[in-house]
Amino acid sequence: AQRKALDVLNTVGLSNSVLRLIERRNRVDTWIKYVGMIATIVILYLFIKWTR
């Protein structure tokens, strides 16, 4: 699905550098999402341990 979307954007006229920038941004957003998930779990665990 992502490749198809990039093909459509390429035919519309977005340059390859812009497409690469979008892909890199997507990768960074994915890292931020997973780090946030792990941090939330750790904080919840520490909060539960602290309140007991």
UniProtKB/TrEMBL annotation:
Topological type in the membrane: Single-pass type IV membrane protein
Cellular component terms per the entry's GO annotation: endoplasmic reticulum membrane; ER to Golgi transport vesicle membrane; Golgi apparatus; late endosome membrane; SNARE complex
GO molecular function: SNAP receptor activity; SNARE binding
Keywords from the named record: Membrane, Protein transport, Transmembrane, Transmembrane helix, Transport
One annotated GO biological process: vesicle fusion
Domain of life: Eukaryota
Subcellular location: Membrane
Membrane spanning residue stretches: 31-48
Protein name as it appears in the record: Uncharacterized protein
